[in-house]
């Protein structure tokens, strides 16, 4: 029964920490645009990477 005297303050502390984190997220506009991230996986915004060697670029033939 004496454990409850330890668990209740710990639970209250967790609730306070959770509320602080939630209000920080709201103030820093973390919940401003929820749909953007969901749609971002559907579109490929990255550009194709150039290859290291282009065809016909044989300045240094491979050593044998």
- Which oligomerization state do the chains in this entry correspond to? single chain
For the record, give the distance between the C-alpha atoms at the N and C termini, rounded to a whole number: 81 Å
Helix content: 40-55%
Strand content: under 5%
Work out the number of β strands.
0
Sheet with most strands: none
**Structure annotation, total helices:** 2
Secondary-structure content class: mainly alpha
Mean pLDDT: 80
Plain-language structure description:
The chain has 64 residues and is mostly helical. 48% of the residues lie in helices and 0% in strands. The relative contact order is 0.06. The model has no long low-confidence stretch (mean pLDDT 80).
Brief account:
The chain is mostly helical and 64 residues long.
Features:
single chain; about 60 residues; mainly alpha; 2 helices; elongated
Write the layout of secondary structure elements.
Blueprint: H1 4-27, H2 34-40
């Amino acid at each position: 029964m004496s454990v409850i005297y330890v668990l209740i303050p710990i639970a209250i502390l967790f609730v306070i920490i959770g509320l602080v984190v939630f209000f920080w997220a709201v103030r820093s506009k973390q919940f401003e645009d929820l749909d953007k991230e969901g749609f971002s996986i559907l579109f490929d915004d990255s550009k194709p990477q150039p290859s290291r060697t282009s065809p016909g670029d044989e300045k240094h033939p491979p050593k044998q």
